[in-house]
Amino acid sequence: MNQTPPSIARQELAAFLRKRREALQPADVGLPPRISSTRTPGLRREEVAALAGVSVDYLIRLEQAREVRPSPQVVRSLSVALKLTTDQTGYLFTLAGHRLPERSTRPNVPSGLAQLVLDVSPLPAMVLNHRLDILAWNDVMATLLLDLGDQSDQDRNVLRMCFLDSRFDGFYGQRDDVVRGAVADLRAAWAGHAHDDELARLIQELEEGSDEFARYWRSREVSVRAQGDKPMDHPIVGPVTVSFDVLNPLGDPDLRLIIYRAADPRSQSALDELARISEQRSKRHLRTI
């Protein structure tokens, strides 16, 4: 990954801080309006420094692109003081040479993306995060993955399903390839989320609960699969092979949309049957509400 040279990053950080400071008025941050006129646009440095808990001299050095590297705590304080958006905060962290802290453990799936998962039906589709938690899915995917919708939020995780749910023993026709790829994918995500406590707990749980997972995890294979095939032996429709594609939404690259398609005519018939079953189940559920 290309990185911005330090001198350019400092200059951009300085300009960004000045521009955001000048864009705010005292009322925006809960300060009383000024009685006398001032030639200083926006907030004064003294006001921002007080709000962020830093000295005025320190803020001046930052705004003058001196060789100062603010800590993550200072960057966060400045982002709060300057009322930065999530995207602006991420930009400020990057300019300061830091990684943006982890987001909430279970991010909300944007409504448009959640609707897309439903719209692509009868193709099975779901949305995962970097821990491979399944956050959104359509009815066909739920039926394909053994009543996915009936599982708890915690159990609705690709790795927990593969390694800790006995129903998936023998489910994948090429299990070694499928589960090894999933662990290699998690290893790639782990490097960018080393401070994610929930991810650490998931890895510990899987290592303690599955010798198979522990073996794959210790191999330190790293691979991100954007597409491929998965043969399955479904208990209702029998053998079915799906081809999958993985798409990342620009608004949150930690999320991934996965869409399955039938890899051959036999599998298409199986998916059609699963779509009919999921539709019937949905109608029965509506009648009982």
Query: Could you spell the SSE succession in H and E letters?
Result: HHHHHHEEHHHHHEEEH
Strand-pairing-aware structural class: alpha+beta
Question: CATH topology of the largest domain, what is it called?
Answer: Beta-Lactamase
Structurally, how many domains make up the residues? 2
Rg calc: 25 Å
Largest sheet: 5 strands, antiparallel
Question: How many angstroms does the end-to-end distance come to?
Answer: 52 Å
Organism: Rhodococcus sovatensis
Protein name: Helix-turn-helix transcriptional regulator
Domain HTH cro/C1-type: 42-89
InterPro entries: Cro/C1-type_HTH, Lambda_DNA-bd_dom_sf, MLTR_LBD
Task: Characterise the protein shown here.
There is one protein chain. The chain has 289 residues and is of the alpha+beta class. It has 2 domains: 6-95, lambda repressor-like DNA-binding domains (434 Repressor (Amino-terminal Domain)), CATH 1.10.260; 111-288, Beta-Lactamase, CATH 3.30.450. It contains 12 helices and 5 strands. The protein has helices spanning 6-22, 45-52, 56-63, 72-81, 86-95, 111-119, 139-144, 158-164, 175-192, 197-209, 211-219, 265-288; strands at residues 125-128, 134-137, 227-234, 238-247, 256-262. The longest helix has 24 residues, at 265-288. The N and C termini lie far apart (52 Å). Residues 42-89 form the HTH cro/C1-type domain. It comes from Rhodococcus sovatensis. This is Helix-turn-helix transcriptional regulator. InterPro entries: Cro/C1-type_HTH, Lambda_DNA-bd_dom_sf, MLTR_LBD.
